[in-house]
Each structure stands twice: as C-alpha cells, then as structure tokens.
Amino acid sequence: MKNLRKAFPALRQYVYLNTASCGLMSEKVFEYRQDHDLDLLIAGSIFRDKHGEVLEKVRETAGDFFSCAPNRVGLIHNFSSGFNTLLSGINSSSRILLLKEDYPSINWAVNSREFDVCYAKIDDKLEQNIEEALSENKPDLFCFSIVQYENGIKLSISFLKEMKEKFPDTLFVADGTQFLGTEKFDFDASKIDVVIASCYKWMNAGYGNAVMLFQEDVPKKIDPKSCGFNSLQGKYKAHEGNFLGKFEPGHQDSLNFGSIMAAIKLINSVGISLIEERIKLLSQKAKEEFKKLGLLEDAVVNRAQHSSIFNIGGDAKLLQFLNDKNIICSLKEPGVRVSFHYYNTEEEIDLLVTALKEYFQK
What is the pLDDT along the chain (362 residues), one digit of tens a residue? Predict the structure, then answer.
C-alpha cells in the first residue's frame, strides 16, 4: 500500500479525502507534462507536427482501457463541452428523463433548452423510480450520473444494461465523471449509448481533459452542428461530416489529453481490479463507521451497494474543524462530503472517525 501512495506527493502532508472534488496528480502525470512542455519549448512547431500521433495513441490507449474502438473515443476538454455539443444535435421536441437534483451540469444544460423534461427521484428506491419513469414517460433520452456527486448513490452497470435492453428506443447518456477510474468498465458490453466523463477526478489525469465514448449507432440519432478545421484532421476523423469530429472542432491540447494516457498507464501498472477492490473495501468500512455515528441519510443506509463518496452532514464549521487537522474534504449541501480512492487507507478512515467523535462530543 505504501508503494501505491508514493506516486501521489500530496498524501505526505494531508489526509486527502477529496477525490470527488479533485483527484490527486501523480508523479507520472506530472513528469509527462514536464517532458511535453520541454519538448514544445525547444522544438516549437517541429514538436507540434507530432501532435496527431500523440492524440492517436491517447485515443487508442483510452479505447483499450474502456473497451471501446478508438474511432468512438472523443477527446474533449470537459464533460460540459461534450454534453452541450451532444444536446445541440437533439431535436428540441424530444422528451428527456433526468434524475431530480442530479449534477447541475446535466440538469441545467437540459433545462436551458426547450426539451420536454420529466424526472425520477433519487432515494433508496432509485432503480425502481427510474424503471417506472422510463415505462410511464417513454423518453427519447435518459441523461444521468452513474454516481451522484453529493451523496455517492451509485447505479450499477448491470442495472443500466438491463434498462437499456428493456427500453431500447431511449438513448442512455451517462455522466461518468464520478465513476470512471473506480472499477473495470467495459463500455461496449454496458450497452450505454454515450458516456462522457471529465478525467481530473478518479482518473487522476489533471484538468482540461475528458473522454466521450459512444456506441456505433449513435451518429444516426444525434446530429450536432459544430465543425472546425480539426473536425477533419487525424486518423479517426478523415471524412467530411465525421461524428467524432463534431466534438473536436478546434486545436486539441496534447498536454492535457496526453495526461489521460499517462494516467491510464499508471492505473494499468497498479491494476484496475486492485483499485476496484481497494475502493470497495474502503467504502464498506466507511459506511459502517458512519452508520454507527448516525451520520448517513436513509437513502444511503438502505442501499446494498454504494460508491466511496459520502455526505456526513455538518456545516462549514465541521469542514473547518477537519481542515485544521489536515483532513481535506468538501462542503456539499446538505453537509460535508468525504470520498475515498485507492490511495487512501483504513487508518485514514479511523483518523476521520476519531476527529468526528471529538467534534460531535464538544
């Protein structure tokens, strides 16, 4: 475990329980970024001319990691840019199912347009609520987060696959920002139509990069209007009207996208199965400890499976108390949010629990 933590220098000074807000940068990603800018510094356009090869390798590396053909891997700068481009290609008369109080970058983007919107409630019966909403409303799209950012409630990939098979006419569009990097994910097998995810959290790839994965028939159903010179540049965007190119119209940043490749190489060296196992272990221990303290909402307590993100209540005073002890977390209404990645330890959960007992017994 100590060897896994060495790659992340921030862990030497903090009990870092805030990956749901910002994943730590590893030394490997930092080294890639340094080498990249040094090459740009000393070679200028000679280095720039190799960008195409770098981006091809990134696309292929990400495609292999997520089990998605590289010509269906979009390299975008963040979830919102990809999602808004996608929505621009949807007929305004479409009906879209959302999760009530889901991540604002999903719900705000949909509600800012003229779509017919319906909702499913997020609670301990989330799966039942979704199935009933899909059956009753028959939406053209279902847009949702795989993992909820406020309290960590998680939809299983097997459930989503089951729903897609039961409602094949509905386009399933998922935000995977709080999911990718936490467990092995076979995109093609999932049957989800589109997954878009920023990679600065659980992928630990730094800011300014995201991936978009889409199934082969999606271009027949969505027609974004964006276009630029880069839309037709590269091995995987060679023909006019290329769907992938509509999400990549301008110059692409090989610094940020190359960071995805560096991050995936680190994940592969650790092993995604080990990462998944570690996260589940930490999640189970944290949930049990928080339950004993009565800190979790019923919607979390009553669910059999959960992510490693928890909202433990409290307010800005609790956040400051924890920060003063070098325990780093976030304030997310209705309380303080903590999150555990594979580089965290059971001992750090114990330190957090001890601090919480001290705070609540004051």
Answer: 668 899 999 999 999 999 999 999 999 999 999 999 999 999 999 998 888 899 999 999 999 999 999 999 999 999 999 999 999 999 999 999 999 999 999 999 999 999 999 999 999 999 999 999 999 999 999 999 999 999 999 999 999 999 999 999 999 999 999 999 999 999 999 999 999 999 999 999 999 999 999 999 999 999 998 888 777 777 777 666 689 999 999 888 999 999 999 999 999 999 999 999 999 999 999 999 999 999 999 999 999 999 999 999 999 999 999 999 999 999 998 899 999 999 999 999 999 999 999 998 87
Long-range interactions of 104-111: CB distance < 8 A, separation 24+: 105/79, 105/80, 105/175, 106/143, 106/144, 106/145, 106/175, 109/80, 109/83, 109/84, 110/143
225-262: burial string, b at 16+ Cβ within 10 Å, e else: ebeeeebebbebbeeeebbbbbbbbeebbbbbbbbbbb
CA dist 106 → 49, 56, 109, 113, 293 (Å): 36, 29, 5, 12, 33
How far is residue 63's CA from residue 57's CA, in Å, rounded to a whole number?
A: 10
172 neighbors 160 (Cβ within 8 angstroms): yes
Q: Tell me the pTM.
A: 0.96
Torsion of the alpha carbons at 224, 225, 229 and 234, rounded to the nearest 10 = 20
Asked if residues 334 and 313 have their Cβ atoms less than 8 Å apart, the reply is yes
Q: How far apart are CA 97 and CA 115, in angstroms?
A: 10
Task: State phi, psi for 210 to the nearest 5 degrees.
Answer: -155, 160
Residue 271 Ramachandran class (φ > 0 left, ψ -120 to 50 alpha, else beta): left
Signed CA dihedral, 81, 26, 352, 181: sign only:
positive
Domains of the chain from N-terminus onward: 2-24+272-360 (3.90.1150.10), 30-268 (3.40.640.10)
Q: Are 126 and 153 in contact (CB under 8 A)?
A: yes
In the block, tokens 């930490």 appear at 282
Helix (H) or strand (E) holding 300: helix 298-301
